[in-house]
Predict the 3D structure of the following.
Amino acid sequence: AFDGTWKVDRNENYDKFMEQMGINVMKRKLAEHDNLKITIQQTGDNFLVKESSTFRTKDIAFTLGVPFDYTLADGTEVSGSWVIEGNMLKGKFTRKDTKKDLITTRTISGDELIQTFNYDGVDAKRTFKRA
Ligand code: MYR
């Protein structure tokens, strides 16, 4: 269901979320318009996510329930895993520096993919459309 290529269409509260993450205003302005595109390929419990944005291109492979390390575009390192809950992908990651959790979910709603984020009490949402 998640398979395919998705392009970010709009953000909600993403600036506030990034601010809570400690990202400075210049980087936030750039990140707000990062033209993020993700290609998701699921084979059973294994996922391959190809990420491409104005910042970088990166391939991430993970298995549901298996912890892995990931570096955010600003260099922040996190570690955690994705699981499936119902028809939602739920990711629980912990920042290596602050030890605080970053919770993210992906769901399909109609022809859109919605990714939510929570960090330290602040929620945000990015909505993607099929490319
Ligand atoms: C993936 O499935 O795309 C790879 C793993 C993602 C793990 C963590 C995602 C959190 C992204 C937060 C971005 C916030 C930038 C301030």
